């Protein structure tokens, strides 16, 4: 099993969909700091169930989602998928049949986290469960982060023990033990609660027994009360009937008298109403006359006001007309004056405008001429500047040429003197050198001896390589023997434990084979079959609880039945015909729609469903019978194969030992000859080196002087050429300078002439511009006066119109004298009408007073009659109320009678006939009160106490039986805990001893010496912590805390690899564990990784080139885009093939 792919999307800096192909055994991940390499480790831990944001270098779990970059938006989710190659079936159980296993986790920004296993949604616990015992997990020893390898060895003894438990594969036993202890605790809690319930039930039962006796007494008294109530109600019904007949006769006589009084009252009401109608009519006429009188008065006042207003208005209108006529005359005069002034200003504005236009044309022509002069002047000025610059540049170049000539002439003099001195030194050195022939002889002897040494080294290397190959082969065989023996012990221990557990579960008494041995079950439904057939798997004779033989029942199963997936020589129809299977929630919902009361549905995980019930599967002692049987058969087969393998390996080991001894002897002989050859070679090389040193010193001086002479001669020749070139350049520059100065003088003369003409024209243009400005201001002033005059004229015209309009309005408002005459005549008519209406009003007031007196007398008589009728009505109502009370009492008695009859059955009525006859004429009220007092003294009575007492007794008996069952289950669970502890202790000690042995071997190999071992801190192997004792070469033994950082890292590596040797995890991730190591230690670590890669897949993050060289595949992580990680993958094996 190994990790083949890691798929990331939206996780930290891996925003795009990224796939890590990890098909090799040694995979290196490289890249600069901060590019996101360690995010790969976080991703693997996260998808394997890590729930702590702190462990993933974040504050909240949503921090793992890509949060955005300069040119990238934040992701809405993070997704990681790990793909494992499981062709070796390392992950067993129901997943052993899958060649590839995929686990996936998706986290959304809402905080919702979802897990998938082979594409199906699952729980986090399902992910962690499949890796139990494999050495993998969110925080297992197989994932070593930066600094974590030191934390492993610096862990407390109890923390280090957890690493050994995971390596020993006992973590799943601890989980089973924890679950069993939880079940034991739950069982004990249930027993305590059950005890409380049983004690409470005993108390309640005692109390209910007393209540039941009281209820029986109550029932006897209640029967007697019903009898007396029956007789009393019968007597009350007769008395009520007599009283009601007398009351009815009195009520009829009073009602006749009441009707006569009401008839007289009605006649009086009719007469009274007639008088009131007449009064209303006369009052209305009086109101009309009064209103008419007031209206005439108001009309007279109105006419008088109108006449007075008209006379006042006529006087005021005449005054306003006179004033308006005077204003119109004055406005007409002002308008005439303004019209004359306007004509004068218009003529003046035309003359000034024509003069301004003439001056503007002249100014425009003068400006154009001045601009032409300015352009010509600027051109001459630019030429002058150019010529000045050329003169200055030529003068500078001439000075430079003069200086160069002087400098090169000085250098030539010094160079000639140095050449003469060097030629003398070279002649002296040639006379000293005489070692050339001797050096040639020593060189030939040295090459011959080097060839001999190289031949011997190659022979020794071949011999050592052969010896190393043989030794590695022997060690490999020994390791395989050791591993096989250890595996054999584990298999034997496991087989022994399984045999004991299977025998304890089966416990066959009749010697016949149990049912499960005759079953062949599809792997997917093995757990479901165990749950359904749990009671029958260990039996040899199948019977159901009713005692019917199951073997005789035949049934045809469909794919929806569990029986379809179970093959057996027995007929299982009665057990399986009512059991259906559902692979998922959708199948479950479809099947439950048509499920009958006696039918079940079972899921692959063992959960059972009925029509209205559900049982979640919990592992019990009987669970796993089929799995254990299959595992036992597999273990027996593997033990046979291991025995044969161990015998063959022992034979191979002896042959390799003999071959190794012969190779070592041959290597010693070659090594001795090589040492002699190397000594002779060293002597020749020493003599050659001394002589060559002297020769080289002379040769170096000769070469230096020769080189310097050549350079000086070349420089002397170049200097002569430079002097000649500079002289020619200087002559040319002087001629050019003279020509340029002549051009400059001519241009300066023309420039002065144009400058004088330009200044004259500028003065003339300024004078003309001043004249134009003065004329413009004068024209603007004239135009302003013209506009103001026009505005004043318009204002006066408007005023004239308004005065004429007002005068017209005053004329229209004059009132004609005829209207005044008509108003005065109308005033006389309304005065006559007022006198007539006043007389009519007086007569109507006298008639109204007479009618009011008659009505008051009638109302007095009506009130007396109403009082008489009301008194009779009260008497009748009191009798009617009493009659209603009698009826209500009668109805109440009748209801009590009916209620009593409902409570007394027909049989009880027949039984009470004689008792009723005997007491029919007796006074039963005292007897009834006596019985009711007895009932009252009983107090509250629980009428269901008798039935509750019976039910409670049955429940207590049931709970007593449950208590016995729970105690039995508790004993079984404690036995299971003891077996788990025993097996855990054995596996842990076996693992500890094996790891200690490998750790003791790997430590000196990585350190090049020294020793190290592990020790338990405590006596109980189930809880003892683990200490590490280490002694690097040249140091005293001590705890791990006394070592340096590099020593701690190597010690931790030795411990981790020792654990891998025992229980290799499918893969191991190392994050820069080589950082604190020097080059030699890195090489030893790389060699160990390469050796172990046959059993463990390594994925390591490194910056070290030596470690990179070990990798079969390199994956580069870059961050060319800020905040976004990308991959660059290199297959080194493929690269080597391409290079070849």
From TrEMBL:
<dbReference type="GO" id="GO:0006260">
    <property type="term" value="P:DNA replication"/>
</dbReference>
<dbReference type="Pfam" id="PF02463">
    <property type="entry name" value="SMC_N"/>
</dbReference>
<dbReference type="GO" id="GO:0005737">
    <property type="term" value="C:cytoplasm"/>
</dbReference>
<keyword id="KW-0238">DNA-binding</keyword>
<feature type="coiled-coil region">
    <location>
        <begin position="170"/>
        <end position="257"/>
    </location>
</feature>
<feature type="domain" description="RecF/RecN/SMC N-terminal">
    <location>
        <begin position="745"/>
        <end position="1125"/>
    </location>
</feature>
<dbReference type="InterPro" id="IPR011890">
    <property type="entry name" value="SMC_prok"/>
</dbReference>
<feature type="coiled-coil region">
    <location>
        <begin position="377"/>
        <end position="411"/>
    </location>
</feature>
<dbReference type="GO" id="GO:0007059">
    <property type="term" value="P:chromosome segregation"/>
</dbReference>
<dbReference type="InterPro" id="IPR024704">
    <property type="entry name" value="SMC"/>
</dbReference>
<dbReference type="GO" id="GO:0030261">
    <property type="term" value="P:chromosome condensation"/>
</dbReference>
<dbReference type="InterPro" id="IPR027417">
    <property type="entry name" value="P-loop_NTPase"/>
</dbReference>
<keyword id="KW-0175">Coiled coil</keyword>
<feature type="coiled-coil region">
    <location>
        <begin position="841"/>
        <end position="874"/>
    </location>
</feature>
<dbReference type="GO" id="GO:0007062">
    <property type="term" value="P:sister chromatid cohesion"/>
</dbReference>
<protein>
    <recommendedName>
        <fullName>Chromosome partition protein Smc</fullName>
    </recommendedName>
</protein>
<keyword id="KW-0067">ATP-binding</keyword>
<dbReference type="GO" id="GO:0005524">
    <property type="term" value="F:ATP binding"/>
</dbReference>
<comment type="function">
    <text>Required for chromosome condensation and partitioning.</text>
</comment>
<dbReference type="InterPro" id="IPR003395">
    <property type="entry name" value="RecF/RecN/SMC_N"/>
</dbReference>
<keyword id="KW-0963">Cytoplasm</keyword>
<feature type="coiled-coil region">
    <location>
        <begin position="737"/>
        <end position="806"/>
    </location>
</feature>
<feature type="domain" description="RecF/RecN/SMC N-terminal">
    <location>
        <begin position="2"/>
        <end position="136"/>
    </location>
</feature>
<feature type="binding site">
    <location>
        <begin position="32"/>
        <end position="39"/>
    </location>
    <ligand>
        <name>ATP</name>
    </ligand>
</feature>
<feature type="coiled-coil region">
    <location>
        <begin position="625"/>
        <end position="659"/>
    </location>
</feature>
<dbReference type="GO" id="GO:0003677">
    <property type="term" value="F:DNA binding"/>
</dbReference>
<dbReference type="GO" id="GO:0016887">
    <property type="term" value="F:ATP hydrolysis activity"/>
</dbReference>
<comment type="similarity">
    <text>Belongs to the SMC family.</text>
</comment>
<comment type="subunit">
    <text>Homodimer.</text>
</comment>
<keyword id="KW-0547">Nucleotide-binding</keyword>
